[in-house]
Predict the 3D structure of the following.
Amino acid sequence: MAVVATNLKKGQCIKYSGDLGIVQGLEHRTPGKGNALIMATVRSVSSGKLNAIRFASSDKVEVVPTDRQKLEFSYADPAGYNFMDLTTYETITLQESLVGDAKDFLKEGLEIEVLFIDGDAVSVSVPATVELEITESSEGVKGDTANNPTKPATLETGLTIQVPLFVNQGDVIKVNTEERSYSGRA
């Protein structure tokens, strides 16, 4: 299905230069002279790289039909990461290469969104923030409160991030998945 470039939306899958890509961002530009342009930031499905693509406002872009499903993380094993389809209760196994950095936020029961193209999973999206328990953290030094000090903390998934000194082992915190940083107490 082809649409005019001005009707593209973030999250759509498009075919460009013989490749498939997911639109990550769109910017409409109107130069002083000439026609309006659409600058699209597209993540390649095959390589995972971001590409900046420029379309004229009248260009036709082929949009590929996709299916987004909510899946719940169950467990990881040598075969991959196992998720449960919340509508059919089937188990779907995704390879580590597809899960990528999202594995740092996966804990049992976490709902994620998986993008499917022609029945094949192509990308995994975790929520903007997740709640994780701190499993290991050193004690903060008393009196060291200048310049917003932080200390490293290891979370239940194995991810290590910087947290404020008042946060301790056993605390559950909110983690910003986009920036991979401390977001607050849960």
In short: The chain has one helix and 16 strands. The first helix runs from residue 96 to 99. The chain has three domains: 2-64, 67-125, 129-185.
